[in-house]
Amino acid sequence: MDTTKPVRCLLSYSLLDSALCLAFADLVRCIMSKSGAMDLASGLGGKIDKSDVLTAVEKYENYHGFHGGDEEERKANYTDMVNKYYDLATSFYEYGWGESFHFAHRWNGESLRESIKRHEHFLALQLGIKPGQKVLDVGCGIGGPLREIARFSNSSVTGLNNNEYQITRGKELNRLAGIDKTCDFVKADFMKMPFPENSFDAIYAIEATCHAPDAYGCYKEIYRVLKPGQCFAAFEWCMTDAFDPENAQHQKIKLEIEVGDGLPDIRRTTKCLEALNQAGFEVIWEKDLAKDSPVPWYLPLDKNHFSLSSFRLTAVGRFITKNLVKVLEYVRLAPQGSQRVSGFLEKAAEGLVDGGKREIFTPMYFFLARKPE
Ligand SMILES: C[S@@+](CC[C@H](N)C(=O)[O-])C[C@H]1O[C@@H](n2cnc3c(N)ncnc32)[C@H](O)[C@@H]1O
Ligand SMILES: *[C@@H]1O[C@H](CO)[C@@H](O)[C@H](O)[C@H]1NC(C)=O
Ligand SMILES: *[C@@H]1O[C@H](CO)[C@@H](O)[C@H](O)[C@H]1NC(C)=O
User: Fold this and answer.
1) What pTM, to 2 d.p., does this model score?
2) Does the Cβ of 372 fall within 6 Å of ligand 3?
């Protein structure tokens, strides 16, 4: 880096304000490029034009109950709402979580990364995926689980996702992993899939179908494209039986998770089960795996917890990220509105931890279901 540049900028008196800003930007750029913070800043907003990020944040927030929005509107406009959310949040997710955007059942002594991979292997094992089979990942993010499951089971996985920015990232990462010949991405809505019926040997969804405006509509599409006799397995985000809709505290937590995670309305576990049966599936087994997890799934986000290996997810790490984003936004390396995004993501973290501790919410309601012959 050219160290005289900030000095030169400081000296050009007439342009002092903007020059200071630029010089500072150079310094920040230099310091941050190593930590991935520059990727966080440059990816922020996804496919949204940088100058429209703030407007998009405002529109996004207005959909939510936390800001006076209403559920019917969120459901009617789910495509716009969810895509805005992922355009805004994806670079934060990648910065904090890596390539897999989900929680995990975790044993004592297991690192977060290990538990995330095992959680993915668990799905592949439950589905009994065989080498060469054609598998569908519904709501695949940037493809972390897809790559892991494809390598673990030597199968061909297609990632279905309605967010263009995530697919662009996913394709890059598939190429780097060398699996771009056998695995691909399709940009489409999981409520209307562009596949003929009976196309896949196995289908899974990880923390994604919660974005569907209605579970039945989504499961019915999955049922249609799955081959008869084959299975669908998922980790669903749900409110548990302990959730009391009359309890104001419970409702507040639910709204925080909805605004923080781009969800129209978090369903109860029983609602998902009903929708599966209604769609025609035979449910083989189902369980809230959060109940079996020796290490609570929300621990990485809990403010009383500290970890170096998942530092960016901890309360201290998030506090640093929040301030970093503030600086990046100030020097215009991150678009206007970036701080607001880190704001609603912080709300999500709080809602998730509170919901997890009270056991009114789970991100891992698991089911294995079969389409009859
Ligand atoms: C929390 S992320 C999980 C991503 C991935 N399963 C993982 O574990 O890394 C939810 C994903 O669902 C996708 N999604 C949400 N609504 C969708 C829809 N209607 N059609 C297709 N994908 C959708 C989002 O774009 C996002 O990639
Ligand atoms: C929802 O979509 C409709 C039709 O596309 C649009 O008129 C309305 O403004 C949208 N609502 C919000 C809150 O953006
Ligand atoms: C993986 O599958 C491919 C094609 O289905 C096959 O050629 C290859 O030998 C398999 N590799 C392993 C390790 O099973």
Assistant:
1) 0.90
2) no
